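## retry 2 of 3
previous attempt timed out at serialization; input unchanged, resubmitting
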Amino acid sequence: MGVPESPPMDAARWLAALFEAHERRVLAYALRRTATEADAEDIAAETFVVAWRRRREVPDDALPWLLGVARRLLANQRRGQGRRAGLFARLVQQRSEVAAVSVGDEGPAIRALVRLSPSDQELLRLVAWEELDHRSIGLALGISENAVAIRLHRARQRFRDELLKESGPSRTSTQAKGNLNGAVQEQPND
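## retry succeeded, writing output
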């Protein structure tokens, strides 16, 4: 089943013949070594993609060569799954740590924050929790630095208004606003 040294149509016929002759055996090989049928089908398909790309290297007795390719693809798949599982475990751990810190405080600031629109919440979180500057926020959100400055200014105003609602009837709006304006200082490059 060597590779013909002829026009592309012959190469396409060669691949069709190779697939017809060996697809079931390659798929069976992969099925016995993967957790799901979908994973096995992916391995078998990728094996024939590799065969197509490296068609000049495929020997006449192609099955052992194809199984070797499938074996290497399975090893790559396992390594990738191991990396993903490790990353997932780290993310779950970090999320629970962050959740304990950020959501555990159900104080007035958190209550005011969750009443804001999702876009206002994201802006304020990027500044306060992620400690990003305007340029970095712009890159993260796909907007200009100027747009960040404007939106952040408005989000801070809405946040302040929500905090004032939290202050309750014991304080007048003027007193609370004066205290907030004195206590909350905008940093020039948030």
